């Protein structure tokens, strides 16, 4: 019996090794092993490599964290046990400083706060809401963190988590299997989450399944109902004002969902290749970025008797895949990261968007972009995070480069840090104290870790250029 169990374990391990997808061409932002990354660096070099590198600093580098090579695979995860899923959690919290060091460095406005390290599995998605952080990985589980400590979590049956959106007490998760699952937070006392549905709803899906007119051809000899994604849901974005949720997929479509009744209002054949990013912008615009190398702007307008999204403008058309988008709504600026290592941006000029230029700071593909006030952050396959600040006159200056990850930086999310102002010195001018903003930045990497940073929008005295 023991020999049989051992052989079964070997089979499961062998299946797991074949199940992992490769990072490949970066068109779909899949994971890459360290060996593949080192061997393909020359093939992925971009124009950005010839540009002057921004100053790299060592002030943010904490102790590098590595995963345990002998850790169990996700089928041995405590989520699959009959006991509590939080016993022997595969996550490890590694704080940067101990209590004595933290008190001595309490005046530091910018720095690495700590790390959350997973023994196995890549980090694919992050979402922050208030003091809670949601992490999605290829273990198909979503874990919830509070103050760098495990707070709660919930699991799904299939489909690794590619995107997470939080809307009040509801959480929407997009998965590799093409499904959007809906969860509800049951309150602070219970600290639990319950699955309350999916998009589309079972009722709507069954209704469309029996209607021949509801089918569309997606491949040769394959028809599916138009209200459901038939490939991975790679990105989602929320329009709170209109109560709409946008989902982009590798099936090349952009779908629009009404949150009040979970109805799919539209399915737009938006691109010629996989959609990697969607973001709700300003002036009623929605931006999509695709592996086909384009960035498109859409707006919901009245067409006949119904409201539909129409293409307003194609902002970018290039050979390199567009991997990520971010918007600074206050400055009416949209940023697009791409596999050539550049971050292109456009700004509103009266009634149209004008190309503003490109941020050159990475040698490999940009995989994620985030905006925090006037700060712009770009995470890359070169394992670094560039921090830019938008100055007057649409000038962007690179303030520093955050290093410490041992793998490609796959996702970024930002939340206002209410504790940052507590570390200000008492003799600081009230006006400066009021104008400065502090941000908590979470970076997820394919090195199995999430790093937590604190950034001040205006105070960068702690950075030492080399």
From TrEMBL:
* Renumbered ranges of WD repeats: 226-267, 268-298, 315-347, 359-388
Species assigned in the record: Solanum tuberosum (Potato)
Q: Where is the composition biased (Low complexity)?
A: 39-73
User: Record's superkingdom?
Assistant: Eukaryota
| Entry keyword annotation includes Repeat | yes
Q: Where is this region: Disordered?
A: 30-74
Q: Which protein is depicted?
A: F-box and wd40 domain protein
Statement: the UniProt record of this protein carries the keyword Repeat: yes
Task: Name a Pfam family for this protein.
Answer: WD40
Keywords, sorted A to Z:
Repeat, WD repeat
């Amino acid at each position: 019996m023991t020999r049989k169990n051992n052989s079964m374990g070997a089979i499961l391990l062998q299946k797991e090794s074949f199940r992992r997808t490769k990072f490949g061409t970066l068109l779909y932002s899949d994971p890459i092993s360290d060996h593949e990354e080192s061997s393909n660096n020359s093939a992925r070099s971009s124009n950005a490599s010839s540009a002057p590198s921004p100053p790299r600093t060592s002030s943010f580098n904490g102790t590098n964290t590595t995963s345990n090579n002998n850790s169990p695979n996700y089928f041995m995860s405590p989520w699959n046990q009959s006991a509590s899923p939080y016993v022997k959690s595969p996550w490890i919290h590694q704080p940067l400083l101990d209590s004595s060091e933290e008190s001595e460095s309490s005046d530091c406005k910018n720095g690495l706060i700590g790390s959350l390290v997973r023994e196995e599995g890549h980090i694919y998605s992050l979402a922050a809401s208030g003091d809670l952080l949601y992490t999605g990985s290829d273990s198909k589980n979503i874990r919830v963190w509070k103050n760098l400590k495990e707070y709660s979590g919930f699991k799904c049956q299939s489909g690794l988590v590619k995107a997470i959106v939080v809307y009040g007490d509801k959480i929407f998760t997009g998965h590799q299997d093409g499904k959007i699952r809906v969860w509800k937070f049951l309150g602070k006392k219970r600290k639990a989450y319950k699955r309350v549905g999916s998009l589309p709803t079972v009722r709507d899906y069954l209704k469309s399944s029996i209607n021949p007119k509801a089918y569309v051809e997606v491949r040769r000899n394959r028809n599916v109902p138009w209200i459901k994604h038939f490939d991975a849901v790679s990105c989602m974005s929320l329009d709170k004002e209109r109560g709409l949720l946008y989902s982009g997929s590798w099936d090349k479509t952009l779908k629009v969902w009404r949150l009040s009744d979970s109805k799919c209002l539209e399915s737009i054949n938006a691109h010629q290749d996989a959609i990697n990013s969607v973001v709700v912008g300003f002036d009623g615009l929605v931006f999509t970025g695709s592996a086909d190398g384009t960035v498109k702007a859409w707006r919901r307008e009245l067409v006949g008797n119904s409201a539909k999204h129409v293409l307003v403008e194609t902002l970018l058309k290039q050979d390199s895949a567009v991997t990520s988008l971010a918007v600074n709504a206050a400055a009416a600026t949209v940023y697009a990261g791409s596999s050539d290592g550049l971050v292109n941006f456009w700004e509103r000029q009266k009634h149209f968007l004008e190309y503003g230029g490109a941020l050159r700071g990475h040698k490999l593909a940009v995989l994620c972009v985030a905006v925090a006030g006037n700060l712009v952050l770009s995470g890359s396959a070169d394992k670094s995070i560039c921090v830019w600040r938008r100055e007057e006159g649409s000038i962007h200056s690179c303030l520093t480069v955050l290093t410490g990850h041992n793998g490609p930086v796959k996702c970024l999310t930002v939340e206002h840090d209410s504790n940052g102002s507590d570390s200000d010195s008492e003799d600081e001018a009230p006006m400066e104290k009021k104008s400065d903003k502090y941000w908590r930045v979470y970076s997820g990497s394919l090195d199995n870790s999430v790093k937590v940073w604190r950034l001040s929008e205006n105070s960068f005295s702690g950075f030492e250029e080399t």
